[in-house]
Amino acid sequence: xxxxxxxxxxxxxxxxxxxxxxxxxxxxxxxxxxxxxxxxxxxxxxxxxxxxxxxxxxxxxxxxxxxxxxxxxxxxxxxxxxxxxxxxxxxxxxxxxxxxxxxxxxxxxxxxxxxxxxxxx
Amino acid sequence: xxxxxxxxxxxxxxxxxxxxxxxxxxxxxxxxxxxxxxxxxxxxxxxxxxxxxxxxxxxxxxxxxxxxxxxxxxxxxxxxxxxxxxxxxxxxxxxxxxxxxxxxxxxxxxxxxxxxxxxxxxxxxxxxxxxxxxxxxxxxxxxxxxxxxxxxxxxxxxxxxxxxxxxxxxxxxxxxxxxxxxxxxxxxxxxxxxxxxxxxxxxxxxxxxxxxxxxxxxxxxxxxxxxxxxxxxxxxxxxxxxxxxxxxxxxxxxxxxxxxxxxxxxxxxxxxxxxxxxxxxxxxxxxxxxxxxxxxxxxxxxxxxxxxxxxxxxxxxxxxxxxxxxxxxxxxxxxxxxxxxxxxxxxxxxxxxxxxxxxxxxxxxxxxxxxxxxxxxxxxxxxxxxxxxxxxxxxxxxxxxxxxxxxxxxxxxxxxxxxxxxxxxxxxxxxxxxxxxxxxxxxxxxxxxxxxxxxxxxxxxxxxxxxxxxxxxxxxxxxxxxxxxxxxxxxxxxxxxxxxxxxxxxxxxxxxxxxxxxxxxxxxxxxxxxxxxxxxxxxxxxxxxxxxxxxxxxxxxxxxxxxxxxxxxxxxxxxxxxxxxxxxxxxxxxxxxxxxx
Lengths: 121, 597
Ligand SMILES: Cc1cc2nc3c(=O)[nH]c(=O)nc-3n(C[C@H](O)[C@H](O)[C@H](O)COP(=O)(O)O)c2cc1C
Hints:
The complex is a heterodimer of chains A (121) and B (597). With 121 residues, chain A is an alpha+beta fold. Chain A contains four helices and four strands, in the order H-E-H-H-E-E-E-H.
């Protein structure tokens, strides 16, 4: 270690990976992975979420999974939760939609309303 | 850097290792691989979480789900349910004592909720075998800060203002100790870390070394800079193999990155560290004995002064601090003395780690702000007394300390309050005792330990503790005489004032404090020939109540010495001559007909 800069660079390199272990109100993408979800391709969706986040180096977003919320006909379902906001549930998500959801919803802050679950319809 | 959606932290401290956490880790890695999840889910080996009786412990992030007592056989289900389907495995969660539902999140568990972690901040969070993870959590930034921005005197001033006191027993102000060594004249000075941890039951130093070894290394380098030393020694007992292994690895990694060695950060400061193994004698934790042992001689204490700060290792100015003391230093440097001084009580700043043991529901390692009451520790964090029995006393300071009775449950625990009530902080052992504990027997137990560990160099300790132990043994055997109490007190006071080192000077403490708070128990043994807690075998006898006995004969069948006889459907009797007072009959009797007294 020859300088403080070197230490800072080393810190920056590992820090992001570790942020996963802090639960300080970060946005979360939850993929619903009940049997119905998995049968409808939830795993491919989950993989797409991961590769998109990795491609964009978005380490401040948590990815988690949960079970079936009872809307099996709308699977695969993905819920996006941001601290202090109501959750948004996307239905019939495909690995292609995932990219757009991440960019529009989480980066630009514009939920894609036409893909959301609308129970009043 | 690879991108994982989930981190699974598994404890590999000594506690969880002995409940097979290593097998669990290899099994988990294999299961994840078989399911093609090894690139999504990372398994991380960490240090101790503190909740050792629930081991092996596993925490899954980002959800923060806390699983306990996970077995290899649970892995298939765990991976299938949690990692494939995203469903928390309820049966592996932790249930609070008395609660009906289980707690899912780590942070919501009472045991962790009341804690404040400084010395243990990284334990159970980082992989101690990766220096990068320590650096990611601001590791070595304190060392960078002192080398770039602070003078040695400035570092010492910072510690003085923070109010950090030694965590190894005495509670001596750390800044002041460093100042003595800084001002001492000498071409060569040394920094020593006391990781001997001899107090039976205490394991905080081991956990810090196993869970966050770099914190100690960084702090020792800071100490070296402050006092003008470029060589340090860590004296650690050989019974701590995992700690030794992690320390060796950590020193190697720090060397590879140039955080130890020559010209650190290009600032012209050199510092090196070596490990010395101790053979586990209690007296070698005493600082002068420890230094003598490092020099390669028999580990015996010597009178002070001169203090090590002036004449330590090979006669050179030396500071010696405890592991936990060092673990606080980088935090103080990074966050400033005001932050540290805002935690704790007027004269005891910061936090203290306690090893919670005995008749308590949650045992383990906890870190709380100084000034936390015994009640919070026993009832909130510890979950109360086992089997909901009554709290009788808590022993602090191990064999050098004393006991706190129930009236002291609301005393804020800090250095000075503990001394005032006749105990001491010691290294932080905290043993909880319930109504079934005999205080005379406890005093005898601790004295037996110190007597055994006495190095024999000075007569007050060598002979005095032996005589005290004989008296105590006599009392527990029902052969005590009224003069015994007086003699115990005279001996105790003499040894305290005449012994050469801290071992002898503190050895009588458990006796004096039990005499202070539980004198009536001693008196019951001596005058009534009774052990009120029913522990001292010589004073016990078992009886069968003819009213309650149904004559089933179960007791007689379970008696190992055939001391019980009788005819089926008639009252059975115990032959006191043959009875060895094992209590097997009382345990087996379905009608509560057998009592002891
Ligand atoms: C018999 C005896 C045993 C001791 N054992 C330890 C020990 O295991 N670990 C420790 O840090 N200090 C122990 N000490 C205290 C040390 O002598 C010394 O005060 C301490 O290491 C100083 O560090 P600190 O100021 O950071 O607490 C012991 C003292 C005595 C008298």
